[in-house]
Amino acid sequence: MELRRFFVSPSDVGEDIVTVRGEEFSHMTRVLRMKPGFKAIVCADDGKERYCTLREIGDGYAVLSVDEVRDADRKKVSLTLYCGVLKNSKLDLVVQKAVELGVDRVIPFVSAHTVEKRFNAERASRIALEAAKQCGSVWLSRVEDAISFEEVIRSFGQYDTVLFAYEGEREHSLKNTPINGDRLALVVGSEGGFRADEAEAAIAAGAFPVTLGRRVLRAETAGIVGAALVMDAAGELEYDD
After folding, report:
1. What is the pTM of this model?
2. C or N terminus of the chain, fewer CB within 10 Å?
3. What is the rounded distance in angstroms from the CA atom of residue 175 to the CA atom of residue 163?
4. CA distance 236 to 210
């Protein structure tokens, strides 16, 4: 029988029990109709898999006993992907693949050439959760509400390295750009790209302009490829020795 995977807050993890609440509790009890005695894998965004047995179903919560804890994955860097809001829900694909790659946060933004202004963070968060379960991840990417490009620039101080994927850059490729520190950010635009003054403002704020190559990529492809290149350069796609 397939072991179902659930995500909980670190505060709901004890030494030998875990508590499942909220939508994950509803999915466990109402959709999957799990009963006491059922087995499950519980993850708390800490690189560990907890193999558990369902013991108690209460009013809005379930208690599981921890049978075994396994170190399943490690994360040496944290990558935030800033991605321009895309038309026709194409950002859903970016969110899904960001989860598979191990991106920590996806933060959409609206810039001068962004056509689509609306973004449903709640829906995208559900996509991220489902993607994490489907690919067997122990990490859950956080999807935040869309912000302005000015807010993106003001956030650069949070990071050790900020990479700015800019269609006007020709010299510096992402794969050959030094990545310093463990708090990383990658900024990728929407279908219309960036205005020259936006690029100038981002670079002045400390972002390093990079090119993703000579071929023209669709905006959703650029976000996925860019995230993969950064994670690879940071050693996050390699097996441990």
Report:
1. 0.92
2. C
3. 11
4. 20
